[in-house]
Amino acid sequence: MAKYAFEMPLAAALPIVGTDALFPVRRVYCIGRNYAAHALEMGHDPDREPPFFFQKNPNNLDASGVFSYPSQSRDVHHEIEMAVMLKSGGSNIPVAEAMAYVFGYGVALDMTCRDLQARMKKMGRPWEIGKAFEHSAPITQVYPASTVGHPDQGRVELKVNGDIRQEGNLNQMIWKVPEMISYLSEYFELAPGDVILTGTPAGVGPVEVGDIMEATIEGMGKLVVTVV
């Protein structure tokens, strides 16, 4: 048995609907600009360009229902996304086989410090300071594919204090789930426990302390998060 210099921190894990077992999180990949309308609102061409990804940290995923506003930002935005959880992995996965690697799904928020992200873009530096900060990915429990199937269409909606801010449909994704899995596997060796956030529809915008966000994706539960 390995001996460590100090006690290992607890591994990040998410609850799974219908069981007391936990889904262990290994890595979190996030695709950028995967809905045409969102690409346009961010000032980019929505044509089907090659996908690009960035990463959040495993312990950024937070199922507590609370989002702590980061002290170093003054412009934090909501981005509702479907999360895909993998049960197996590998390299160079064919698109036609990719869905066999999926364990389940969830509703997530890719919270973004837009001011810090913009500063990093301007300086030509990585985005982590604006994307991978603490508790930056509120998320639901994991919904196993064995119960919800493999959703490729369905309404996506985010409300803030009861007002609709974002709405779209999963069928509007430019790069579909099997394509994302296949593409990622060309550059990374995917593995059980990997999570993919699949992009956000148009309507991203700021939140303030005291706001209540309600994120829903048809066929899954509702993610309710309070900004504190």
Describe this structure in words.
- The chain is 15% helix and 32% strand.
- The protein is α+β, with helices and mostly antiparallel strands and 228 residues long.
- It has a single domain (28-227), classed as Fumarylacetoacetase-like, C-terminal domain (Fumarylacetoacetate hydrolase, domain 2, Alpha-Beta Complex).
- The strands form five sheets. Strands 4-3-15-8-9-12 form a six-stranded mixed sheet.
- 37% of the residues are buried.
Class computed from helices, strands and strand pairing: alpha+beta
Mean pLDDT: 94
Order of helices and strands: EEEHEEEEEEEHHEEHEEHEEEE
Which CATH architecture? Alpha-Beta Complex
Total number of beta strands: 18
The CATH superfamily appears as: Fumarylacetoacetase-like, C-terminal domain
Query: How can the largest sheet be summarized?
Result: 6 strands, mixed
Tell me the fraction of residues in β-strands, as a range: 25-35%
What does the radius of gyration come to?
Answer: 17 Å
Secondary structure tally, helices: 5
List low-pLDDT spans.
none
Q: Indicate the CATH class.
A: Alpha Beta
Q: What is the end-to-end distance? A: 42 Å
- The largest sheet has its strands arranged as 4-3-15-8-9-12
Keywords: Isomerase, Metal-binding
Protein name: 5-carboxymethyl-2-hydroxymuconate isomerase
Organism: Falsihalocynthiibacter arcticus
Pfam families: FAA_hydrolase (PF01557)
